[in-house]
Amino acid sequence: TAGFMLKKTVVMVGMMGAGKTAVGRALAQLLRVPFLDSDQEIEAAANMTVPEIFARDGEPFFRARETEVISRLLGGCPCILSTGGGAFLSPVNQANISHSGVAVWLDADLELLWTRVRHRDTRPLLRTADPKKTLTDLYAARVPEYSKADLRVPCAPPVAIEKMAQRVADVL
Ligand code: S3P
């Protein structure tokens, strides 16, 4: 996409397993702009993984770092910024994102999300006795917040990551 000029940072929001990181990275390649990921930034700064941060310092500590990182990255050059699934729930993050970015909700349905997260052990929030129920409850609680994003891109029918990135580019 030659000549595409990104005016604002595109912030990928949505549930864990929606493909924010994979699609965000492909979108950045397509548009030839930098790609950043808030979870990766938090991990690099802490020199710990997200599960380690949750275990050692707790979720509130993680959320505080997440808000700092998102605010800092929004102050930089326009880029594609993928965020963790909980980031767009915070009113402060929502305000910061709407002020200097454009929020794109990757909207995947629960069954697709479950097939993607069920075998991974990287989500501390899903380390419960009944992770499918936890995911279902999180989904129900979060959809009203994700609906506040500027743009919504459905993940159904499913397509390859590059096509998903093209879908997002088409609505920007
Ligand atoms: C979280 C999602 C994770 C990560 C953390 C909390 C959430 O990111 O930020 O485990 O609250 O949904 P992904 O959406 O990239 O899995």
Summarize the entry for a quick read.
The protein is α/β, with parallel strands linked by helices. The chain has helices at 20-31, 38-46, 50-57, 59-74, 91-100, 110-117, 131-146, 161-171; strands at 9-13, 35-37, 80-82, 101-107, 151-154. A five-stranded parallel β-sheet has the order 2-3-1-4-5, with helices on both faces.
If you had to describe this structure to a student in words, what would you say it looks like?
With 172 residues, the chain is α/β, with parallel strands linked by helices. It has a single domain (9-166), classed as 3-Layer(aba) Sandwich (Rossmann fold). The chain is 52% helix and 13% strand. It has helices at residues 20-31, 38-46, 50-57, 59-74, 91-100, 110-117, 131-146, 161-171, and strands at residues 9-13, 35-37, 80-82, 101-107, 151-154. A five-stranded parallel sheet has the order 2-3-1-4-5, with helices on both faces. Helix 1 (20-31) packs across helix 8. It is globular. The two termini are 12 Å apart. The mean pLDDT is 95. Shikimate-3-phosphate is lined by residues 16, 20-21, 39, 50, 84-86, 123-125. Shikimate-3-phosphate binds next to helix 1.
